[in-house]
Amino acid sequence: MLLLLILLLYRETPIWNSAHCLLLHRGPLNDDEPYLKSVVLHQWLFGYELPDTILLLKQDGTLWILAAKKKCEFLRKAADSIPEGSPIQKIHLLLRNKEDNNADNYDTLWTEAGFSENGSSGDNKENKPHAVGSIVKERANNATSGGILGPWEERIDEAMEKKAIELVDAAPGLASVMSIKDDDEQDLMKKSSVLTNKVMKHGCIRKMEEVIDAEQSITHEQLAAHVEEILEDPSKINLKVPADDVASCYYPIVQSGGKYDLRISAQSSSDALSHDIITVSLGARYRMYCSNIARTFLVDPPKKVSETYEILLEVQRRACRS
Questions:
Q1: What is the distance between the alpha carbons of residues 227 and 239, in angstroms, rounded to a whole number?
Q2: Number of helices and strands in the chain (H, E)
Q3: Largest CA distance in the chain
Q4: Sign of the Cα pseudo-torsion (63, 95, 42, 55, in order)
Q5: Residue 183 burial by CB count (10 A; 0-12/13-18/19+): exposed, middle or buried?
Q6: CATH topology for the 183-321 domain
């Protein structure tokens, strides 16, 4: 997978915003933000999260990694077994040094990135800022995290103040690269989709049918909680999936009674479920690969509502075909 990333960098495609190199940092662990670009990238590259780690990817095909001892040991096998003919020339592992607070390691990265003492590119005859690709939105948290990243981000900030470095956003480029899925990834996405569909069919719809048929009362939050429990433990609907491999992508969204919020930030309310027009949105994550499903259920709808819904479905069908 990393080969594709480097090949795209070699081609100097616009997705990297003319960056001379890429700094692909991973900040501290944060369970509240599982979809950070760096989290997804590290899972995509290594199948593992490497928090508080600096990755410097150069156009010459070399990758420099600064990390703690345990992470370097984890990456050693990859560094020592680069296939012949690979565009990756070498993977350099820099071991965290607490004695000098990584001063020598930072100097090495600084030089390898092509910066001179004042931060600019050594061969930059036009004296333009050195363009460096970074996951810009995550820098604020990295700068205050301490560890390996904190002092490094401070050094980058100082060079930016001198207008020696220009940070360009590499996030769109990373998204473009990671959108290309190999066979294994496509299989994981299919399994995630199957799981989402089965939870909707055998967990959510079945529960709604029971509530409606028995004329019971249940709130949107209670139905969402029921679905969430199944997403976290599919054995509740007799699916044999390892619990460690699955999770809910987001808290399910259930709405009815004429109050509908179509934004992705919508929440299931404490209002009672109305037996009229019910919308449900849920998603399963299988081994870090997510899928989503959203459905509208019409309970004894007026003819006009049914006709309007059929028109909307036809519009969607035609849009998908165009």
A1: 14
A2: 11, 10
A3: 78
A4: negative
A5: exposed
A6: Creatine Amidinohydrolase (3.90.230)
Which residues, listed in sequence order, are joined to residue 26 by a DSSP beta bridge?
53
Q: Assess whether pLDDT exceeds 50 at residue 122.
A: no
Using DSSP's 3-state secondary structure scheme, residue 124 falls into: coil
Q: Is 215 helix (H, G, I), strand (E, B) or coil?
A: coil
Q: Which of 236, 231, 235 is nearest to 246 (CA)?
A: 231
Q: What is the CATH number of domain 2-178?
A: 3.40.350.10
Place of tokens 């593992």: 48
Q: What is the pLDDT of residues 10-45, one digit of tens each?
A: 455 567 778 888 898 888 777 777 788 888 888 888
What is the SS3 assignment for 84?
coil
Compute the distance between CA of residue 310 and CA of residue 294 in angstroms, rounded to an integer: 16
What are the two backbone dihedrals, phi and then psi, of residue 240, each rounded to the nearest 5 degrees? -90, 85
| pLDDT classification of 61: cutoffs 50, 70, 90 | confident
What pLDDT does residue 276 have?
A: 93
The residue among 286 and 44 whose pLDDT is bigger is 286
**Smallest Cα–Cα separation from 281: which of 202, 204, 190, 193?**
204
- Is residue 181 very low, low, confident or very high in pLDDT (cuts 50, 70, 90)? confident
Domain boundaries, the chain: 2-178, 183-321
Residue 240, helix vs strand vs coil: coil
Q: Please list, in sequence order, all residues whose beta carbon lies within 8 angstroms of the beta carbon of residue 62, skipping any fewer than 6 positions away.
A: 88, 89, 90, 91, 92, 112
